[in-house]
Amino acid sequence: MICWGEEKRCADPGFFCRKIVEGVSQPIWLVSDTRRVSDIQWFQEAYGPVTQTVRVVASEQSRQQRGWVFTPGVDDAESECGLDNFGNFDWVIENHGDEQSLEDQLENLLEFIRATL
Question: Where is this gene product found (predicted)?
Answer without folding.
Answer: Cytoplasm, Cytosol
